[in-house]
Amino acid sequence: MKLNIAVFFGGESVEHEVSIISAHQAMEAMDTEKYNVIPVYVAKDRRLYCSDLLRDIKNFKDLDALKKQCTQVTIVSLDNQIVIKPAQTKMFGNKDLGTIDVAVPVMHGTNGEDGTIQGFFEMLKVPYAGCDLYGAAVGQDKVMQKNILHNSGLPITNWFWVYSSEMDEHQDEILKKVHQLIYPVILKPARTGSSVGIAIAHNDEEYLECFEDTRQYDEKIITEKVVKPMVELNCSVLGDCYHAEASVIEQVGSASSDELLSFQDKYQGGGEGAKGAKTSGSKGMASTARIVPAPISDEKTKMIQDLSLQTFRVLGASGVCRIDFMMDQDTQQVYVNEINTIPGSLAFYLWEKNGMSFAKLMDKLIALALDRERRRSRITFSYDTNLLSNYSENSAKGTKGSKM
């Protein structure tokens, strides 16, 4: 019997369009002999839509027109099933649009990769692929992430963070911290991805200009020392806290002359392409200029794979993730940059080099989702008490403010 796999994509994020590309790559890779694939589009206004039109990426050229042709839906738990229902039921229309056995979120950035939709799945009690809500939240918030990495003894660059509002009253103090790092420095929103809102500053004037731009995307702003000359190396990890494996290492190169790998470099670059992906147009992260495997020694490869597995574990990750590293070309010092808990193109191109097809990768993600749900079904989350049976106004006054 086939499993009903709902692939959630889109979302209220600066990476909305990237999510659409990654999701279509994933859906095309799924074995239709095993799964009924149900596309669930999360529009930028957070409304959910279902339709067969969502299967063809060409239909996404005009999002407003597409939404008008799709059915807005809601997802509810009924009689131990997760049911997709039309938001507005017509008198003679279908009462539901199917059920969900496993949810696969392919959503990048805010309100998708950050624990938001994972919490939604938790409330529904539907098995879902990837990190749980805790791992997703930590993976998205680079401030929490860097603190955990530092406290776990993993190598990261010198950095600090502030709330964006602090710049209005404490500019001198912030600039003093920047001077301690020594220019050039890089500014990042704490909870975005795909290089959106990231900039490099070489002096105070540039820093203040970059800060104003970066604060448009987040309330938390990270400043860290630039590693230069720098080589960017990435490694994917697949698994959970019980067992995980690391992929080959890739070296990522910018297709432009800029100091940063830009959004255009990542998703509109001139790399080797997404082998095995049937979607037309952009190939997502698989189009980035890259060298796989990276031209580094076996010893360095093993070290980065070990760091990847450690990072995956201490951040509570699961599913398929990508850990990004920076290596100082002169000193060969390696730093953990960040984890991507739902990486672009699901990092399938790294697993192909390990001999795992995209279809097998999706099989593994679905199996991990079901395994986690089986384990969680054995955990006690609540227990019966007689607290309310003894409740009265007098007793309530005596326990005001107490959590007991």
Structural write-up:
The chain has helices spanning 16-29, 63-69, 116-124, 133-140, 142-151, 171-181, 204-214, 263-267, 298-314, 348-352, 358-376, 393-398; strands at residues 3-10, 35-42, 48-50, 71-78, 81-86, 99-100, 102-106, 159-163, 185-189, 199-201, 220-225, 230-239, 244-252, 290-291, 319-328, 334-340. By secondary structure, it is of the alpha+beta class. It contains twelve helices and 16 strands. The strands form three sheets. A seven-stranded mixed β-sheet has the order 6-5-4-3-2-1-7, sandwiched between helices. It has a five-stranded antiparallel β-sheet with strand order 14-13-12-15-16. Residues 270-281 have low confidence and may be disordered. Helix content is 30%, strand content 24%. It folds into three domains: 3-129, 3-Layer(aba) Sandwich (Rossmann fold), CATH 3.40.50; 140-155 and 228-376, ATP-grasp fold, B domain (D-amino Acid Aminotransferase, Chain A, domain 1); 159-225, Dna Ligase, domain 1.
Which segments are poorly predicted (pLDDT under 50) over 5 or more consecutive residues?
Answer: 270-281
Which secondary-structure class do the elements indicate?
alpha+beta
Summed over residues and divided by their number, the pLDDT gives a mean of 89
Main sheet characteristics: 7 strands, mixed
Order of secondary-structure elements: EHEEHEEEEHHHEHEEHEEEHEHEEHHH
With strands numbered from the N-terminus, the spatial order across the biggest sheet is 6-5-4-3-2-1-7
Q: How would you name the CATH homologous superfamily of the largest domain?
A: ATP-grasp fold, B domain
